[in-house]
Design a protein that fits this description.
288 residues; alpha+beta; 5-stranded antiparallel β-sheet
Length: 288
């Protein structure tokens, strides 16, 4: 049966925590738990094709847009849902009044801007005004959706994603509107947790390329030169060059130095409280 990915469940819980203003009561402008869905209901299952369904509930024959239109979906098809529905809310913070419409438009802007945190999103079906339904589709196959999306926003990710970017985007939105302090999302995260996230990010070729190009002492300031990627490379090269003596194979030394730039070692050297600075710097460098 279809299950929810852990990061999606965490994103759901985070949104409810901050946008369900009257917990335990159904209030019109609150984001109540019943209004945030991940795994498809009976109607989804009967349809046989939805990002809210996993492999066991997807029909086996006929066109399946949530599987067949992208190799990322075909490769990632498993028994996890890869979408979230978010109902209407309206919340006032010191920064203003914000609704589901604002959230949806903010997400679409992230996709249009090629924000790396939005790179897993396949589609957003939403209403900018409560009167028309629009769809942002990464594959540019569809531009609208059914009328139920006048009242909720559907966000689906390609099935090969692990879902962590959904949690990142939810956190960024809550920061954007002032419901989360800028560094609150790092509270309670251990160095081990950060290391795992960092190493996972390095599996993305685009991020890995930028990561190794960053002189770490300049990321937000305050990082010692000894932790600099460039410093590590220079020091490793100098040591290898000295050890090689007169018998120098420059290309072999360079290859060895690069191979020795182990992601786990780099992650361990970066203090947890600098994680957001690193992420922000990467986002800037990866934007096109």
């Amino acid at each position: 049966m279809t299950a929810a990915k852990t990061p999606h469940k965490q994103a759901r819980a985070l949104l409810i925590k901050h946008l369900d203003i009257h917990p335990g009561r159904v209030v019109e402008n609150d984001l109540d738990p019943a209004e945030v869905g991940i795994v498809g209901d009976t109607d989804h299952a009967q349809g046989g094709d939805s990002y809210h369904l996993g492999k066991d509930q997807i029909r086996k024959t006929g066109h399946r847009y949530s599987v067949d239109e992208s190799p990322l979906d075909r490769a990632g098809l498993d028994n996890y849902a890869s979408a979230m529905d978010i109902g209407y809310f309206k919340v006032t913070t010191p920064r203003g009044t914000f609704t589901l419409r604002d959230f949806s438009l903010w997400l679409v802007d992230r996709c249009e801007d090629r924000d790396p945190d939005a790179k897993d999103i396949r589609e957003i079906i939403y209403s900018p005004d409560g009167r028309v339904v629009k769809r942002w589709d990464r594959l540019k196959r569809r531009t609208t959706g059914d009328s139920s999306h006048l009242y909720h926003t559907h966000i689906s990710e390609h099935r090969d994603s692990i879902g962590d970017r959904m949690l990142i985007l939810a956190t960024r939105w809550l920061k954007h509107i002032g419901l989360i302090e800028e560094d609150d999302d790092m509270a309670g995260i251990t160095q081990k947790d950060f290391n795992e996230r960092f190493i996972g990010a390095l599996k993305d070729p685009d991020i890995a390329k930028a990561m190794r190009a960053i002189p770490w002492q300049y990321v937000g300031g305050g990082i010692p030169a000894g932790m600099s990627t460039l410093g590590v490379l220079a020091g490793s090269y100098a040591a290898a060059r000295t050890a090689a003596g007169d018998d120098v194979d420059e290309s072999a030394i360079i290859a060895g130095v690069l191979a020795g730039l182990d992601p786990a070692a780099i992650a361990a050297a970066i203090p947890t409280d600098l994680a957001q600075r690193v992420a922000d710097e990467l986002a800037l460098r990866l934007k096109v």
